[in-house]
Amino acid sequence: MQLKGHKLVEASPAVCYRLLTDPEVLVRTMPGLKRMEPTGEGTYAADLEMGVAAIRGRYAGTMAIQDAVEGSSYRLIMDGQGPGGFVNVNMLVQFQEAEKGCDVAYEGEAKVGGTVAGVGQRMLSGVASFIMNQFFTSVAKEAKKIEG
Amino acid sequence: MSQSVYGARVRRKEDPRLVTGHGQYTDDVQLPGLLYAAMLRSPHAHARILSIDARDAEAMPGVVKVYTGSQLKGLVAPIPTAWIPPESDLKMVEHPVLAYDRVRYAGDGVAMVVAESRALAEDALDAIRVDYEALPAVYDQVRAMATDAPQLHGDAPGNVALHWTVGTDTDEVFRAADVVVSQTIRQQRLIPNPMEPRSAAALYNGATGELTLWATSQNPHIHRVLVSGVLGIPEHRLRIVSTDVGGGFGSKIACYPDEVLVAYAARDLGVPVKWTETRSEHFTATSHGRDHVDEVQLAGTRDGKVLAVRVKAYANMGAYLSTAGPGVPTILFGLIVNGAYDIAHASAEVYGVFTNTTPVDAYRGAGRPEATFLIERIMDRYAAAIQMDPVEVRRRNLIRREQFPYANPFGLSYDSGDYHQALDKALAMLDYPAIRREQEALRRQGKYIGIGFSTYVEMCGLGPSQVAGAVGFQGGLWESAMVRVHPGGKVSVFTGASPHGQGEETTFAQIVAEKLGLPLEDIEVVHGDTNRIAMGWGTYGSRTTAVGGGALALAADRVVAKAKTIAAHMLEIPEEAVQFEEGRFHPEGSRDRSVSFQEVTLQAYLAWNLPAGVEPGLEASAFYDPTNFTYPFGTHIAVVSVDAETGETRLMRYIAVDDCGPTINPMIVEGQIHGGIAQGVGQALYEGAVYDDDAQLVTGSFLDYAMPKARFFPRIELDHTVTPSPHNPLGVKGVGETGTIASTPAVVNAVMDALAPLGVDDLAMPFTPARVWEAIQAAEGRKGGQS
């Protein structure tokens, strides 16, 4: 499944980058993300609660931030396993200066397996963009607090 | 007694029990101390298992034990296949009950939790940590044969499970023929969905060593043979019970790892264990059907005579060989690719291919729908190529009445029939000239209707055993029956066939009622229990009435013969002078003196005054092996309308004229035909399993897998012809699968007929609105480009 989108956040690219790489901010803003603890350089153990169609449950896995270019881009790698199967995400996140702040663009691929693939995969991309939208709206609020 | 119940529309005896919640399904089994099992299944289509850590799961309250593949390796034998087609070079790869080093499809079993409740068992699955190393996966059988494809089994190079050829040399005929038509056809994978999911429950008696396994099986005695072998439990200590089974359609033929695991755990723990799959689990862990890529070619003359047909098939076997899997795309498909037509030269070449998908086995029709689809589609192509009406082409090639018994190019002997009569009857119901005129008129208004034909024949009534052996089926195909008349005159009938929704508790009672002159309610049919029935081969391949009913007729005749001997003694007349009518024995030509069947029965048990040499009691068994397969046939016609704006197909009329020989219960026969047609239409218009590029099943629920609904159908117009089969005592031919076999090509031919003026000449099933609409757009694009 392809993941692609972008969102305008009213903050500088540097602030956006910082917010989107800060585990505390991510746990506050990412819907369903319950825990994110560093396990090494740019790697984290994470717990995510997800509900898609009939598949609900807690997914445990790892998150990694790779190829990080401060204030500009990084690659997000997520591997999660849960009751409905597995979810693997490999996504490039880019931050570009825009007129009213920063354009945050993401592009990548999500692979799902097991029941989560068989029950509702057709709806997953819709669900994913819904979640991303929620996420960026929360991030924008965080940014406003800082910039404001 | 008044009217005969044989041939009458008697209501099903089993229904009051089944529709009021009093059935005895496997999941209804309740036992003291019963534990529940849940299966951990691989989310990966192909992966190496690096490690499994079940410690957290085992520490959870209520969890009794967790089993993994490496623990069971060597303790439980791999699951065998039971069909080894000769000269197919079948690769009998290992199918472990739980994967221990590698998983080969999403749904492959990895661990089993046994816990005090179902909820606890399912929760514990989440606590098992499996470290997988994902491997490249392949779901498509043609791609799986490519040199760079991921390899599933070390001992099946190129993923080839089998390679099988059959028939006569056709090359010369094709070279010389005036007309050759060819088509590549994908017959998509289907997911059988009986109302009842699979289930198993097991009870072990440590003192006697006896194990009882309740299982959703179409063939409990075959399960006994296989489970006995896999677990090393001798057959006299293994009882399989499948009392009520809520439909199977082929998906409950196979011996699955799940029931073996449940039985193993019950023995290992000394406590009864039960497992029932969820519907989601069913979609990936229960066998699938069809999934062919076929190349079909037909050679003929310009005036409509078919000279030869040849088929090359790539059949997807899934990740492992299922119980009957290898026989379906070979024997049950290849031997009948000439269909109902007199074609002198025919051949089939079949590759069975391993892929990272759920194993494929029989699904209602099993091989014969695939063969019928090919010949019925290519006949239409041929008709179009020589610009002849599809009915006329069929008429010129259908086997003629005087040709029976007809030897087809593969050595099958078609039993009996009048194929033209069925065709003419169906055409008369349709009013063919009128509907063609209507079609023409509608086309001028931009409306598209189509008429599709399927003049099918199929082989069923699977038996005799000698043929079973010759085609590599690892079992017999005879059937057993016992008729036991109790002292009071009530009757228990024991059948080795194991009906599971087909209504044989009623039709079999009708057979016995007719033979013994008793009311229907005095007869009870017992099935599905290996301790009550010595041996049998189960229900599949539309064999139960032909073979099981044949056995029953013979057994009932033996009971009557013995009763007659006793009655003669009671009446003090010679046996030859005894007549048996309407439940009473009397001297020929005189009804003044008579004894009833009940009086004779009582004397048989009292044995106060039996003729010399006659043993007490009144029961008889028969082990009946038919002389040949049976060949039901008929003509199905579909009329559809296709909305060119939306691509939606609507079934306007459906006509079926079938010949299954004499009917014992027309209501049940019609029900079988209705359901069969719906299932075949499902393949044509709605159903299809879809895998993504990582071999993940995308259509894993009813949200994405469309089953046909009653409201999709018009009233189905039925009629029949009756040509008894000479191959069994009742002359019956079987009707469980005809609807499914015939309807898919009838509907597809109708849609293609509707789309012909729009320039669409090839389309893959299922014909969903989106697909039809895209095909119409593409055809219009082509037309636009040309002008």
Topology:
The complex is a heterodimer of chains A (148) and B (787).
Chain A: E1 2-9, H1 13-19, H2 23-29, E2 33-40, E3 43-52, E4 55-69, E5 73-82, E6 85-98, E7 101-113, H3 115-118, H4 121-147
Antiparallel strand pairs in A: 1-7, 2-3, 3-4, 4-5, 5-6, 6-7
Helix pairs in contact in A: 2-4
Chain B: H1 15-19, E1 35-41, E2 47-53, H2 55-59, E3 63-68, H3 69-72, E4 102-103, E5 109-115, H4 118-126, E6 129-134, H5 141-144, E7 160-167, H6 171-176, E8 179-190, E9 199-205, E10 210-215, H7 220-231, E11 238-241, H8 257-269, E12 273-276, H9 279-285, E13 289-300, E14 306-318, H10 331-334, E15 345-354, H11 368-385, H12 390-397, E16 406-407, E17 413-414, H13 419-430, H14 432-444, E18 448-457, H15 465-470, E19 479-485, E20 491-495, H16 504-516, E21 523-526, H17 544-571, E22 578-581, E23 584-587, E24 595-596, H18 597-606, E25 619-624, E26 633-642, E27 649-659, H19 666-686, E28 716-720, H20 738-755, H21 769-786
Parallel strand pairs in B: 1-12, 10-11, 14-15, 20-21, 27-28
Antiparallel strand pairs in B: 1-5, 2-4, 2-6, 3-5, 7-15, 8-13, 9-10, 9-12, 13-14, 16-17, 18-26, 19-20, 19-25, 22-23, 23-24, 26-27
Helix pairs in contact in B: 11-12, 11-20, 16-17, 17-18, 19-20
Provide a concise account of the structure shown.
Helix content of chain A is 30%, strand content 53%. Chain A is of the alpha+beta class and 148 residues long.
Structure report:
The complex is a heterodimer of chains A (148) and B (787). Chain A has a single domain (2-147), classed as Alpha-D-Glucose-1,6-Bisphosphate, Chain A, domain 4 (2-Layer Sandwich), CATH 3.30.530.20. Chain A contains 4 helices and 7 strands; from the N terminus they run βααββββββαα. Chain A has helices at 13-19, 23-29, 115-118, 121-147; strands at residues 2-9, 33-40, 43-52, 55-69, 73-82, 85-98, 101-113. Chain A has a 7-stranded antiparallel sheet with strand order 1-7-6-5-4-3-2. Chain A is globular, with a radius of gyration of 15 Å. By secondary structure, chain B is of the alpha+beta class. Chain B has 3 domains: 17-135 and 195-247 and 252-285, Alpha-Beta Complex (Aldehyde Oxidoreductase, domain 3), CATH 3.90.1170; 289-462 and 628-786, 2-Layer Sandwich (Aldehyde Oxidoreductase, domain 4); 478-624, 2-Layer Sandwich (Aldehyde Oxidoreductase, domain 4), CATH 3.30.365. Chain B is built from 21 helices and 28 strands. A 7-stranded mixed sheet of chain B has the order 3-5-1-12-9-10-11. In chain B, strands 7-15-14-13-8 form a 5-stranded mixed sheet. Chain B has a 4-stranded mixed sheet with strand order 18-26-27-28, with helices on both faces. In chain B, helix 17 packs across helix 18 (597-606). The mean pLDDT of chain B is 96. The A-B interface holds A 53-54, 57-58, 81-86, 111-122 and B 41-45, 106, 125-126, 280, 283-284, 692, 694, 696-701, 703-704.
